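Write out the bound-state structure for adenosine-5'-diphosphate.
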Amino acid sequence: MADKEISAHDRARVLAEALPQLQRYDDATIVVKYGGHAMGDEHLLRQFARDIVMLKISGLHPIVVHGGGPQIGSMLERLNIKSEFQQGLRVTDRPTMDVVEMVLAGSINKGIVAAINAEGGRAVGLSGKDGGMVQARKVTTLINGQTGEEDVIDLGFVGEPESVDRRVLDIVSNSDLIPVIAPIAASRWGETYNINADTFAGAIAGAMRARRLLLLTDVPGVLDKDKNLIKQMTIDDSRKRIADGTVSGGMIPKVQTCIEALERGVEGVVILDGKVPHAVLLELLTDHGAGSLITR
Ligand SMILES: Nc1ncnc2c1ncn2[C@@H]1O[C@H](COP(=O)(O)OP(=O)(O)O)[C@@H](O)[C@H]1O
Ligand SMILES: CC(=O)N[C@@H](CCC(=O)OP(=O)(O)O)C(=O)O
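---
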């Protein structure tokens, strides 16, 4: 519906709807993972930035973790560096790692920071390296989506969070600043690792005991076999949907991240379409949840 077709009465009703939600989320930490596919165009980025600023001034504590897979892919292509994925993870040799860090912690991170600041917020760009926030370890095994067995693999500089130190995030997030984090971290020996952004966001949400983890992607949420949106499911339902093949491909690590975050104490995780304008506000501040809510 075009803006002008919405009556003043409807606008007021939508605003009033936000009150119980604002009360419910007062002082809550919300981790929002902004995926590379959801970044799309400038207009969407501006709307996303507005939503984040709106949450902050409404008394919530948003923490943004971003991806940038497609943007890394374009840069590697421009530099003639071949790239391949194994079970959703980018095989990362040293030259690829340099590009991944340059794109994620450089242009993408600073682009989101600038967009939030342009909407009146005060964003601080970080990576897992800053303040020793995330310590990474090399990924050496992966659960095979088909067999359910553990495969031993060598993906180069692909890591996973080994531990999270909350100090920097507590300081930044409890002020008027909004942390924006690139999913890069160093190992205890100082080597740089590339971490899948969903996995990284899950670890941050777990460590921060976030009330909500929102994973913004380019599909409406988790779809059933008839491509209908599953509006709500439990950890058990999620495991069944992976086992019976309803959830496949890139959705598997996403749903696994949700399960792990819930088991670490996050109250609810939502997978939703970041291409829907104001997806974050719709999900948190209206009665119309925007995607698939997964709870314990
Ligand atoms: N049951 C499912 N519901 C929704 N998407 C699914 C499902 N199973 C597999 N997918 C795939 O997962 C993709 C989302 O994962 P991915 O491409 O890794 O997202 P992102 O880049 O946002 O992290 C969807 O575009 C879709 O192709
Ligand atoms: C190890 C690994 O695969 N890292 C990802 C990091 C970025 C990411 O996860 O971005 P999206 O959320 O946009 O997919 C990569 O190199 O593409």
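---
DSSP finds ten helices and 16 strands in the chain.
The two ends are 36 Å apart (CA to CA).
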